[in-house]
Amino acid sequence: MAGREILADFPAGNPRGSWPAEEKAAELTASGTPAAVAMDLDSDRFLVVRAES
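RESULT FIELD:
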């Protein structure tokens, strides 16, 4: 994830899986900040990152 701005993060062990991260990315994108979800295997977390244009 080097060089990518992390906007939010969620534990991979969440009972809802990646849904909270996907919902946050959609919320940010709708408000004008393009966002995507990536998995950081080292930290076992879903990351919401600024989407590359």
